[in-house]
Specification:
Number of strands: 7
Low-confidence stretches: none
Distance between the termini: 58 Å
Number of helices: 8
Order of helices and strands: HHHEEHEHEHEHEHE
Strand order of the largest sheet: 4-3-5-6-7
Oligomer: single chain
CATH topology of the largest domain: Dna Topoisomerase Vi A Subunit, Chain: A, domain 2
Structural class: alpha/beta
Helix content: 40-55%
Largest sheet: 5 strands, mixed
CATH architecture of the largest domain: 3-Layer(aba) Sandwich
CATH class of the largest domain: Alpha Beta
Amino acid sequence: MNTSYPSQLLEDAVQEFSKLPGIGKKTALRLVLHLLKQNQEDVHRFGSALIRLKEEVCYCSECHNISDQSLCPICQDQNRNHKQLCVVENIREVMAVENTGQYRGVYHVLGGLISPMDGVGPSQLEIESLVARVREHEADEVILALPATMEGDTTAFYIYRKLAHLSVEITTIARGIAVGDELEYADEITLGRSITHRIVYKGN
């Protein structure tokens, strides 16, 4: 046991918390000590929520968003425009766009971006399922709501090439988002305006 910890159980808990992104040893220790002060019911509820999340959460068979069922609430909503697909990098960006209140279509979560430097190619993303979805549902518009980064632009261009032979309008969100910025960190007003004032994607 590390002598700087008075308990092996405490050290083990700190080690697990410090594995989380952005959590260092000091923050992990503060979180663990906070949990120790809580009553047993609260801690059990906390642990149970994490276990259920891992064991029971699934991904929407249509858009690949996180869901409690095989089809997420957005894809089940018949009041949404199912012929308008907003393509995003990950689940956090679905939440970011939804928070703007400016979009009433549905989503398609890629699960990442094309990044040869990181060993991520098109086959590892939900691009083929996007093409199939556009074809099968005869989508009217695909909105490329991807980050204004090299990886985002590379992915957008690849998708554009894959959809070019289909009769679907391809647009991209307006560059109210600064180059290099991630969508999830944009304020709701800026992101909302970017969605509302989207422009036709030229593929260049």
